[in-house]
Amino acid sequence: MLDEAETSTPLPVIDPGGWVCPLPLRDSPTIVMAHGGGGAMSGELIEYLFLPAFGAAAQAELGDAAVVEVGDVRLAFSTDSFVVKPLVFPGGTIGELAVNGTVNDLAMVGARPLVLSTAFILEEGTELAEIARVAEALGTAAGAAGVKLVTGDTKVVDAGHGDGVFINTAGIGVVPDGVDIRPQRARPGDIVLISGDIGVHGIAVMSCREGLQFGTTVLSDTAPLNGLVAAVLATGADVHVLRDPTRGGVAATLNEIAKVAEVGVRLDERLLPIPDGVRDACGLLGLDPLYVANEGKAVAFVAPEDADRVLAAMRAHPLGSRAAIIGECVADHPGMVVARTALGGTRVVDLPAGEQLPRIC
Fold it and tell me: Which InterPro entries is this protein grouped with (predicted)?
């Protein structure tokens, strides 16, 4: 390593004392897996380390997708990285995830996805046949989602410094006129819907990773949601919020919306669409399905007068046949999510610190 005196440009001085810590990092001086789990520690890492470090260059609303105006056109832009282990799991591969994850982030702001970039980080020693399987799955998924792969990059890291294949995708889409979908629009009275069964992807990955058998095969729900969202918007309904509940599951997503909009959310656990395989697996593993990741579901907040037609539009789409109304937005307990249990009690559904099942996307 060069000393400062040996360089032509002085090395930058980084002052950790300027960061708003230590609480955000939970008293940990190093990164832990929970920082990438989509829960409280992920949010704190962004809020108290990245955003202060970025300074004025950071946009205040740093979400999964941003809407930017270019002339008279509103474009949506998103980027995501995929590090799932294993690379192939029941119902999909990291290739499908890389396309569907970014397509869905664009769809959640009402955009019509158009183009994606793809960047591969490959570990030395990985079988070419395995990379080819992932690349073919990625191409097939792009075709199914109706997007073009227009640019990309490839890097190789030393053996032992990767995990076979990591993928980053970025995407651009067009937001139609009159569409305004963002967490800040959630308001008391809104009805909360989910487009189908929850917890499927996380359990599919866990079963493959740990070699667990649950009496039935649970397949990942990875899928592009732009068609389902287009069908919902075509009804003319006043859709306030759309989110895909990936890392941290439905619980993390609803908590994030409640916090940003300063509203409360009240769920009814009896209405949650949880397939038997997921329920049984969660019971065996001591997991809560609300916190298990999904890769092909959408949560929607809609005006109460529009709830029935949004539900009908979801159920009429192949990816929404199990759609359900699961709760409502309330003025009580702003920033908090609560759930009515099957026994008639009420419990708080907190934002998780990390992810129950790490490396699921």
Answer: HypE, PurM-like_C_dom, PurM-like_C_sf, PurM-like_N, PurM-like_N_sf
